[in-house]
TrEMBL record:
Matches recorded under SUPFAM superfamilies: Glycosyl hydrolases family 6, cellulases
Record keywords, A-Z: Carbohydrate metabolism, Cellulose degradation, Glycosidase, Hydrolase, Polysaccharide degradation, Signal
PANTHER family associated with the record: GLUCANASE, PTHR34876
Protein name: Glucanase
Keyword Hydrolase: yes
Catalytic activity, EC: 3.2.1.-
List of residues binding substrate: 95, 97, 219, 222, 322, 350, 354
Organism annotation: Lachnellula hyalina
Active-site residues, as the UniProt record annotates them: 129, 174, 356
Length: 401
């Protein structure tokens, strides 16, 4: 990999040359190793209303590349190794899923060339994953102040310190959709005010000129139901307005860590008994349906869609099955050529190979969805590498590696 600088690397550099700050050293290293970075010294402004991905490639970050490299150290099959290196070159998002991981943002901001855009997922709300168990987070409902001061503020500071880097942020996957459809669940009802205030704070605080934000809107099988579309649009836009209608909100993200096709006629779940109540049988029909409602509510309305693992359809027994779907494959690579003016880009958000949740039924974060017949087993804790699953995604990739 080109300019991998882990945290340990940063510390070593800093102690070798105490007169210089780590940031300064990274800048110098980048200029040496990557002439393109010289041009990146200029501050970036992502113009509201533009497509941030039209002129920039999604950065293939060194954290995912390191994860793949570490996994490949134990693999002997030469074909898999070669294909895995190619996966590491595909752009993808990094999930800032704990306060401890926030410093990684600084590393990745420094390594992103001016021709690229860094993708980060903001994912640490108090009471996170209120309707499931697999991704319950480190902050409990009520810890909004900690979320603001220890999580969002340092991310904003890191981005402010790197005005030369363009950044795409996906804001809190699943959070607002859960408030639309699962507010009757005790944990979601309890978390609702922290979710709304937390997302609004994130939108306001991360509203920097070099940033494009996309608020997560679930997927077509979630907010795409007739009865959910308008409430979904209203929920997202009301939080956007609470934040003061920040200029750097560009729209929504959909299918994050999901499995839906971008375009499939008549649709994977079009023959189910309730299909008549959901006209959003693929993500294209979903964004075409919800974005006009979002626009009418006064928010910019474009979308980015996670195509990281959606190459194979017909695998899920039910549309709501979300955990480690068995038989999945890597999907279309990140691109701004979507064929739909409302879709800014297809992106890889969920790092393929990282688990959605443990299949160990005795674990605290065991969610029964991860034990369903269509879920891959065994699977480790959410976010943890699962080598056989990664190899399955490779084997079933479309386009092939
Ligand atoms: C997990 C996170 C992880 C992310 C990406 C989520 O399901 O809860 O810990 O970073 O997936 O793999």
């Amino acid at each position: 990999m080109k300019y991998l600088l882990g945290l340990a690397g940063l510390a070593a550099l800093a102690s070798a040359a105490p007169a210089e700050t780590p940031t300064r050293i990274i800048e110098e290293q980048m200029l040496e190793r990557n002439p393109a970075a010289a041009a990146s010294a200029a501050a970036v402004t992502i113009a509201p209303g533009s497509n941030p991905f039209a002129t920039r490639t999604l950065h293939a970050n060194s954290v995912y590349a390191s994860e793949i490299a570490a996994a490949m150290a134990n693999v002997t099959d030469a074909t898999i190794k070669t294909q895995a290196s190619a996966v590491a070159e595909v752009g993808s998002f990094l999930w800032l899923d704990t306060i401890a991981r926030v410093p990684l943002a600084t590393t990745l901001l420094a390594e992103t060339p001016s021709t690229e855009i860094l993708g980060l997922v903001i994912y640490d709300l108090p009471g996170r994953d209120c309707f499931a168990k697999a991704s319950n987070g480190e902050l409990a409902t009520g810890q909004l102040a900690t979320y603001q001061s220890d999580y969002i503020d340092p991310i904003a500071a890191a981005i402010k310190a790197a005005p030369q880097t363009a950044v795409a942020l996906i804001i809190e996957p699943d959070s607002l959709p859960n408030l639309v459809t699962n507010i009757n669940a005790t944990a979601c009802a309890a978390a609702a005010s922290d979710y709304k205030a937390g997302v609004a704070y994130a939108l306001k605080t991360l509203n920097l000129p070099n940033v494009a934000m996309y608020i997560d809107a679930g997927h077509g099988g979630w907010l795409g139901w007739d009865a959910n579309l308008q409430p979904g649009a209203d929920m997202i836009t009301s939080v956007y307005k609470t934040a003061g209608s920040p200029s750097q909100v560009f729209g929504i993200s959909t299918n994050v860590a999901g499995w839906n096709a971008w375009s499939e006629l008549p649709g994977e779940f079009s023959t189910t008994s309730d299909a008549q109540y959901n006209k959003c049988q693929d993500e294209q029909r979903y964004i075409d349906a919800i974005l006009p409602l979002i626009l009418a509510d006064g928010m910019p309305a474009h979308a980015i869609i996670d195509t990281g693992r959606n190459a194979v359809q017909g695998l899920r027994l039910a549309w709501g099955d979300w955990c480690n779907v068995n038989g999945a494959g890597f999907g279309v690579h990140p691109t701004s050529s979507t064929g739909n003016d409302l879709a800014d880009a297809f992106v890889w958000v969920k790092p393929g190979g990282e688990s959605d949740g443990t299949s160990d039924s005795t674990a605290t974060r065991y969610d029964s969805f991860c034990g369903l017949a269509d879920a891959y087993k065994p699977s480790p804790q959410a976010g943890t590498w699962n080598e056989p699953y990664f190899e399955m995604l490779l084997k079933n990739a479309n386009p092939a590696f």
